[in-house]
Write a structure and sequence with these properties.
Layout lengths: L17 E9 L2 E8 L2 H5 L2 E5 L2 E5 L5 E4 L6 E6 L2 E6 L2 E9 L3 E9 L27 E6 L15 H16 L5 E4 L9 H9 L5 E7 L5 E6 L7 H6 L9 H19 L3 E6 L2 H4 L5 E6 L9 H19 L2
Parallel strand pairs: 1-5, 10-11, 10-12, 12-15, 13-14
Antiparallel strand pairs: 1-2, 2-9, 3-4, 4-7, 6-7, 8-9, 13-15
Helix pairs in contact: 2-7, 5-7
Length: about 325
């Protein structure tokens, strides 16, 4: 049964940021776009889904300008939140864009064409081009180091492999991007707190953290934000700095995963977890788990190919 929610009377101040909403329904989904000239109000918003209800929490009071809604959507506002009751909702996809700041919510509904391999995807979201790849600042984080060796294999250590790959990636990237930095440049120990502080000072455009797994596959880790991480906690706690960038991090993970698979014909498995390092990053960030040495030979030639694939993935991400 569809719940109808009434719009309450809300008093706004002149300083309240304005949020404009427009929407359309087609091809088995409803697209709702929330736009504001205040970037913070969009980047700090959190979106949660429960059954047929989508709740969007904003960091502070706002003035709302609503466009025409499809018949399948009922909208209400309470305090700093917008509630969307969407009939036959199956799932949502959230995208954040800039120039101007926009929050795009695609809601897939039952009874229309659903997302899948044999069905057309929703139309692309048109947005202003991002920063060119050649202007990127790339931060590379070789996992482990010093007494923290990571996994010990028969003839190598995880900390040594990640450093070798990081140095090869940095060397190859230096001619393609504005600047490349490594969180560690030798076999020295770094605590996670030290890594977070060092990477945070870099003001990098992208973070690539490198690790090694015991499996024969690549693992591409991207952060998920716990449901209790509200817009307010994300804004004031460094533990949830990734909240603003999580959607872009997912695009980065997908692009790198495709490039690695195309290069080596090895599965690159996408894994979403609330990893402490990634969650604390105020930039698009992924962690790449490299295959075990028993399945992948880390020769200079293969490290060069590996670097080429990762850079291709980042370059393709920059264009999306």
């Amino acid at each position: 049964m569809l719940l109808l929610l009434a719009l309450p009377s809300v008093v706004f101040t002149e300083e309240s940021p304005v949020i404009t909403m427009r929407s359309n329904e087609q091809n088995g989904f409803v697209r709702m776009v929330f736009e504001s000239q205040n970037q913070d109000v969009i980047s700090s918003a959190s979106v949660n889904e429960s059954y047929s209800l989508v709740k969007i929490d904003f960091p502070h009071e706002f003035t709302f300008k609503q466009g025409t809604l499809p018949g399948s959507v009922k909208l209400s506002i309470k305090e700093n939140s917008i509630y969307l009751n969407i009939a036959t909702l199956e799932k949502i996809r959230v995208t954040r864009l800039q120039a101007p700041s926009r929050l795009v919510v695609d809601a897939y509904i039952t009874g229309g064409v659903t997302e899948g391999e044999n069905t057309p995807p929703p139309p692309p979201v048109v947005h202003a081009p991002g920063k060119p790849f050649r202007l990127y600042v790339l931060m590379i984080d070789p996992g482990h180091g010093g007494a923290d060796t990571g996994i010990v294999f028969e003839q190598s250590r995880e900390s040594a492999i990640t450093l070798n790959v990081a140095q090869g990636l940095a060397k190859q990237a230096s001619s393609h991007v504005k600047n490349v930095m490594l969180s560690r440049k030798d076999d020295s120990f770094m605590s996670i707190e030290q890594r977070i502080a060092e990477i945070g000072k870099s003001h990098a455009d992208v973070l690539i953290s490198l690790h090694v797994t015991r499996s024969p596959y690549f693992g591409i880790f991207k952060s998920s934000i716990p449901p209790y991480a509200t817009a307010k906690t994300a804004r004031y706690s460094t533990s949830f700095a990734q909240a603003e960038f999580v959607e872009r991090s997912h695009v980065l993970a997908q692009s790198i995963g495709v490039a690695l698979h195309d290069q080596f014909k090895i599965d690159a498995r996408q894994i979403e977890l609330p990893m402490p390092l990634l969650m604390a990053m105020g930039m698009p960030s992924v962690a790449i788990e490299l295959p075990a040495p028993s399945a992948f030979n880390y020769t200079p030639e293969n490290i060069a190919l590996l670097s080429e694939a990762i850079l291709k993935g980042i370059a393709e991400y920059a264009e999306r």
